[in-house]
Amino acid sequence: MSCRKLFVLPFHFRNAYSTLINTHAYSQNLFSHFASTKFNISAAHITRMFKLNPQLQRLQTLDKVEQFVDMLNRCGCSKVQIAKIMMARPQMISTSVERISEPKIKLLEDFGFQGETLAKLLASNPTILSLSLENTLLPKMEFLKNLFQSQEFLIKYLLRAPSILCCNLEKTLKPSVVFWERWGFQGTELFRLLSIRPAILQRSSLTPDQADLIREIGVDKESKAYKYIVNVVATSRMETLKAKIENLQLCGLSVEETWQLCRAVPQALYYSRVRVRETMNFVVKDMELPANYIVKHSCLLHLNLEKIIRPRFLVWQKIKAMNGPSLSLLSVLMMTEERFVRNIIRGHPESTTLWTIYENAISKASNHAKSSFHC
């Protein structure tokens, strides 16, 4: 037997030895020690960072790393935000801060991002630091500034939709603006649409089914509900929309009544099926009202069933049983909390009884919410 074969380790020992060597190399690496001790970045995340940027394993000094961290500190970033940025874009850590990153920071500052807003934008979309300044970031920022014509709106918008800066300007953003303008959203109306659903600027088309549904609902372009309906339909899956429409009809509405409700409360296509079904069922079964009552009084869909509709209905029902003065149920439901308690409960001769009914209903609602949360 040769001497070489005498010293060949078994397979499992070779694996253990290899792991020991790798672990030792990891523990001795300058960057890994810096990242784990100063920013509490886990070994798994550091390993992933090494794969994305192998240069981090070969650093002889931490000069560039510390310059990168100092820059983020000056931007107002917290340790948690800095760690998030480093883990998301490790490629930027070993680059020249002065040449690559700082010009982009300066550009964002020129557009109004300072302190907390700048830190939040960078942490929510660290990819910004990897974008080309001249070819990508600057043209997009100028396009959005010209579109919004308001620095305040630009800042609010990008904080809500930071991924927009990663969209292609010529293939996505510009075609999207043209598309929504054709659907009647121009100027202020476009801003309102973007305020409701910022990510819609990434959309530049509707499927034939989505366009057909908008026409079928029959909402007028001059109506306030128009932009909400287009918004919901454009940003929802058709399967989901069809399920919600079917849900309304299963609750007792005809096709035309369903469209009437959608035109009155576009949120009917946004709220969950469970919420709408439970409210509709309560109106029909507990209140003993026809299903189309909610079409005529669509404001009920905006109200919380457990915290407003059910407790107030129980109080109203008790007052009615006491042969008290006639009260409009709708007016009772639409009152502010303060006015309801003052005028309906405390102003009644049987206020103690009414308060007990109301408090028990609210308590049950809270317990139901907690159990649902834990489930």
Q: How would you describe the overall organization of this protein?
A:
This protein is an all-alpha fold. Helices cover 68% and strands 0% of the residues. The chain is built from 22 helices and no strands. The chain has helices spanning 3-6, 11-28, 30-39, 43-52, 63-74, 79-88, 97-110, 115-124, 133-148, 151-160, 169-182, 188-196, 208-217, 225-234, 238-250, 255-264, 273-286, 293-296, 305-321, 329-334, 337-345, 351-374. Helix 6 (79-88) runs parallel beside helix 8 (115-124) and helix 19 (305-321) runs antiparallel to helix 22 (351-374). The radius of gyration is 30 Å and the shape is elongated. Residues 1-7, 11-27 and 370-375 have low confidence and may be disordered.
**Uncertain stretches of 5 or more adjacent residues:** 1-7, 11-27, 370-375
Secondary-structure-derived class: mainly alpha
How would you spell out the order of helices and strands?
HHHHHHHHHHHHHHHHHHHHHH
What is the terminal-to-terminal distance? 66 Å
Give the topology, please.
Elements: H1 3-6, H2 11-28, H3 30-39, H4 43-52, H5 63-74, H6 79-88, H7 97-110, H8 115-124, H9 133-148, H10 151-160, H11 169-182, H12 188-196, H13 208-217, H14 225-234, H15 238-250, H16 255-264, H17 273-286, H18 293-296, H19 305-321, H20 329-334, H21 337-345, H22 351-374
Helix pairs in contact: 6-8, 7-9, 13-14, 15-17, 19-22
Could you provide a short overview of the structure?
By secondary structure, the protein is mainly α. Helix content is 68%, strand content 0%. It has helices at residues 3-6, 11-28, 30-39, 43-52, 63-74, 79-88, 97-110, 115-124, 133-148, 151-160, 169-182, 188-196, 208-217, 225-234, 238-250, 255-264, 273-286, 293-296, 305-321, 329-334, 337-345, 351-374.
